[in-house]
Amino acid sequence: MEKRDIKSLTLEELTEELKAQGYPAYRGKQIYQWLHVKLAESFEEMTDLSKDMRRSLAERYRIVQLKPVQVLVSKVDGTRKYLFALEDGHIIESVWMRYKHGDSVCISSQVGCRMGCRFCASTLDGLERDLRPSEMLEQVYQIQKDTGERISHVVVMGSGEPLDNLEGLLAFIRLLCGPEGLNISQRNITVSTCGLVPEILRLSEEGLQITLALSLHAPDDEVRERLMPIAKRYPLQEVLDACQRYFQTTGRRLTFEYSLIKGENDSPGHAHALARLLKDQHGHVNLIPVNPVKERGLAQPDKKRIDAFKNILEKSGINVTIRREMGRDINGACGQLRKSFLQKMG
Ligand code: SAH
Question: pTM for this one?
Fold first, then answer.
């Protein structure tokens, strides 16, 4: 029988299971802290448990762990990109960035992705599988161990569509932000979605305080459908209505991500249309010059065109920033490192 994944259990679940095995309730908290605060990697380390208890736990449970297989450090800004191996051999990618406001980790939520966005490297080979809550947590834990610094911000913007793994994502957020674990503030968590309407609506009802980022990338359905297959299932107006709902129930302003792609969505006309579209939305726009993906043949607009796009939005009263590119010298964004690693292994 496969051993159970103890790191994906909430404190309540763990306590219940231990009680059912005849242990007192306080053992739950004790073991939980070993796993989620002291970041123990084996039951052997849990020295305040009896040898018998450690042995019995090890028979029943496994402690899911990621193995770092590669770490690249940017000479430009200190950004660190990690490739981790999962228990089943799959490879995922995470990024650590240092900002003025604290250390931030960008994690993956799935192995691969099935959303098919044209500009994205993560989706080239489709979806392999969802990540478990423990595997999402482990990206944060491993990086915290490696850097020796406390991580204050987590963005779920690596490979995968987090809302396509909603159950796993919710468990992950509760584990990461729970007072008994790393206790990261929900307000410092950002989840980015390509716009799955039913899941955005469900997320609105969860009573969370996380930031929702919508990958917009287009001012109308026609352009969006060319870039993102998911746009055919959920028209823009439905997606924006769901975002509005998220704002109403949580009070959290949204982030609208817009990757600027030469000749696709970067004209002054697109900028004006975007300003009209977002006039009454509660949020700001984050412009991201597209990271060229060789397989996709898409390019960045030049700086003048990017600035012009930004100016039009600003003049229309839209809050807008251009995302600073981090770790440019260590292999682009969004699944590109993993992709090049797998190709070399291939
Ligand atoms: N599936 C989620 C999160 C993963 S991608 C989503 O779609 O939001 C995180 C962000 O990076 C998304 O806005 C995505 O559209 C964007 N992105 C993907 N590939 C990119 C590329 N080559 N250049 C710039 N942004 C990219």
Answer: 0.95
Structure tokens at 36: 């989620």
Element (H, E) at 84: strand 80-85
Q: What is the pLDDT of residues 263-300, one digit of tens each?
A: 999 999 999 999 999 999 999 999 999 988 777 789 99
Atom 10 of ligand 1, nearest CA residue: 157
8: left (phi over 0), alpha (psi -120 to 50) or beta: alpha
Cβ(286) – ligand 1 distance below 6 Å: no
Task: Determine how many CB atoms are found less than 10 A away from the CB of residue 302.
Answer: 12
CB distance 291 to ligand 1 below 6 Å:
yes
Atom of ligand 1 nearest to the CA of 164: 1
Instruction: Please report the pLDDT score of residue 327 as a whole number.
Output: 76
CB atoms within 10 A of CB 75: 9
Specify the residue with its C-alpha closest to ligand 1, atom 21.
Answer: 291
Which residues are annotated as catalytic?
Answer: 93, 334
